[in-house]
Amino acid sequence: MSKSKKINSVNMALEILNSFSVEKPVLGITELSKKLEVSKSTIHRLITTMLKQGYIERDIATQKYKLGLSILRLAEVINRSNDIRTISLPIMQQLRDQTGESVHLNIISYEQLSRVCIAKYESFQGLRHTVEVGEFLPLHRAASGKTLLAYQNEQFVNTVLEQVENEDRKRKVREDLKQIRAQGYCFSVGERISGASSISAPIINNSKKVLAGLTISGPTIRFTPEKTEQFIDLLKETVAEISRQVGYQT
Fold it and tell me: What is the pTM of this model?
């Protein structure tokens, strides 16, 4: 097989893996063929290879396909190498229990110009705000994204804001970023999802670099002024503790 064909096969295999989602965890050859606009024979050939490597498994009930256990192995490699996640998890759980709301940890994906959730503890309450681990979301909208964006260099901020067509909206985001840097956190109401509120603050290492952002989120109806003030205080204490554990010194 030529080098170009090998590269195309790798790209297509990755496209197949990326086709699976929380909403569509099981897919058939025909569905993948239509979605990716590739022949069934090509999909079948690649699926067969990925089956052997454990990246794809056959779903016994439907005889279709789902992600295999090799994906979990790679995910565990990422988790073990990501110290910020390891350090944050028990502290995040405590914050979730203290607030009763969902807590999630986000980092920047520079290639995707997005933020991505790498860990979460969901609220136990029936009505709650959820974010999927691994989900890419905008940096210029809502507390989680803007908190991370606020501490990036001007060139990166400009690149991200190219996604925003409305000039008034761009100016508002820039004002928000300035305020976030001044107060050390961001509070947003209904920016990305109507009826949801979130508070986010940065986690900083010993080089004064923002490694991640920690967010408390939930239904706006529960974010009363008193609760919001309490959540902000708890969030500040939590990110200060995580920052301390990753080497930050005041």
Answer: 0.71
What are the CA-CA distances from residue 236 to residues 16, 43, 139 (Å)? Answer: 41, 49, 21
Instruction: Judge: domain 3-72, CATH 1.10.10.10.
Output: yes
Cα–Cα dist 27/21, whole Å: 10
Burial 125-140 (b: 16+ CB within 10 A, else e): eeebbebeeeeebbbb
CA distance 217 to 210: 20
Q: Residue 4: pLDDT above 70?
A: no
Residue whose C-alpha is closest to residue 140's, from 167, 107, 114, 165: 114
Please name the fold of domain 82-245: Beta-Lactamase (3.30.450)
β-bridge mates for residue 103, sequence order: 121, 216
Q: CA-to-CA distance for 237 and 173, rounded, in angstroms?
A: 26
Q: How many helices (H) and strands (E) does the chain have?
A: 9, 8
- pLDDT for 8: 82
Is 24 buried (19+), middle (13-18) or exposed (0-12) by CB count in 10 A? exposed
Whether pLDDT at 80 is above 70: no
Q: Give me the residue spans of the domains in the chain.
A: 3-72, 82-245
How far is residue 88's CA from residue 245's CA, in Å, rounded to a whole number?
9
